[in-house]
Amino acid sequence: MRYSKAFASAVIVATLIAVGSTASGPAEATQRIDSARISGYLNDAGVSHKDANKVIDKIRHGEQLDFETDQKPVSVETERKGDWEVTTEIYPDGSAETTEIEKPLEITSATSISAHAGPTNCKVKGGSGYRSYTNCHVRRTNPLYNLGFKASYTIVQSGKDYIGGVHGLETKYYAGTCSKSKLNTTRKRETASAKATAKASTVYKTYASSSSRNVWLKLWVGKNKATITKN
């Protein structure tokens, strides 16, 4: 009987240890947050180290960042960086988001200028009344993930602009997971009432949060220009 009690006690202790290990799962998950990458991105965007640390702390606690909510950015800056048109939004809590579209000005092979993009083979060629862009990046970057793709499209001065194709869907995550990622051209050619459109989307879930959300990035081609929007 003594042996049975001792054995039972050992089983209980082992069970408690196992339960304790399971309970530490969420905490261990937050340790996978790439805080160095997040801090580096925020600092490049103009966010102070102090505010960047506050953003990382919110992520670790599973809190939504301001860029994910209806909060308005405190600053919005669009600038030309070499072959890239870059828009950076800074939010009240120190979170930030960047959207980039590659638009070479010269009819030549492009080289990477953006701090957030690697080498690319984006090219542009032109003729009488048109400019065609091939393999040009469209990208959305924030502390949680990157979402982007490459697009080929043509601007027609006296006709309808169109998207020739999209490929190379990119999803990278730094504080959670992405799933059900999709990329497609939803409208190939501009019409009298609507622009040509391509859309990338994914379902993002932060490690420390139980909820997930659908996020997307759209390329619009029409009225002789290309623009991007996001949700």
List keywords for this structure.
4-stranded antiparallel sheet, disordered N terminus, elongated, 7-stranded antiparallel sheet, Immunoglobulin-like, single chain, 4 helices, 231 residues, alpha+beta
Structure description:
The protein is α+β, with helices and mostly antiparallel strands and 231 residues long. It has a single domain, classed as Immunoglobulin-like (Sandwich), CATH 2.60.40. The strands form two sheets. Strands 1, 2, 3, 4, 5, 6 and 7 form a seven-stranded antiparallel beta sheet that branches. Helix 3 packs across helix 4. The longest helix is centred in the first third of the chain and has 22 residues. The chain is elongated. 33% of the residues are buried. The N terminus is likely disordered. Keywords: Signal.
Layout of helices and strands:
Blueprint: H1 2-23, H2 25-30, H3 35-44, H4 49-60, E1 75-81, E2 84-90, E3 96-102, E4 123-127, E5 130-141, E6 145-156, E7 162-173, E8 176-187, E9 196-206, E10 212-222, E11 225-230
Antiparallel strand pairs: 1-2, 2-3, 3-5, 4-5, 5-6, 6-7, 8-9, 9-10, 10-11
Helix pairs in contact: 3-4
